[in-house]
Amino acid sequence: MQSLVELYANVAYIAVDVVLFISFVYLVFRVKETGIRVFYHRGYKLKSKRDHDFISWCFTLIVYTLFNYIDTIMTGLIISLDTDYLLRRKLFYLSKIFFFILLYVSLYALHVMRGCSFSMITRSAYCLGLIPITLYLIQLISRGYYDVTLITSENFRFMISLYATICCFIFVSFPVKSVYQRIKKANRRPQIS
């Protein structure tokens, strides 16, 4: 069972990197069309729900990616600390909780500063983020303070990998849906003969 969970976890994190890369490629092409001002210039009005959804998705993608890579570096640094293992556990789980809360605050601030409504993707990411926060909090209390394992490492890793997999589907859903709608719209145009 453990090797299967390890395989799934590795595949899930590779999938996250692939999805983020694909999403950034889509983001670059869309920014070439709309211009970069759409993100920061409040004078540029977001006219449609599609504009709001695009900006909201971009903010979510960028913040999630930045925090994901910063968190990876911080995790490596915390694990390599030469301190008591309980202190390391506490720092590890506290840093994970801190990064998720900081991610939430950053997303909220970006949406408010831009005057953009939250898309369904951002709301889904917000709700989905409660899963790892809850898991990290349980682990912080049980393993960090009481040195008791309530959630086995296989189950914990599986749940975090499942979260990463669902995030992949959430992040890739917007570009896929948008490209599909463009293709569908292009095929509907009447041909002049």
TrEMBL record:
Keyword Membrane recorded: yes
Transmembrane segments: 12-29, 54-79, 91-113, 125-146, 158-180
The organism's place on the tree of life at top rank: Bacteria
Keywords assigned by UniProt, alphabetized: Membrane, Transmembrane, Transmembrane helix
Annotated protein name in UniProt: Uncharacterized protein
Organism name: Pseudoalteromonas luteoviolacea
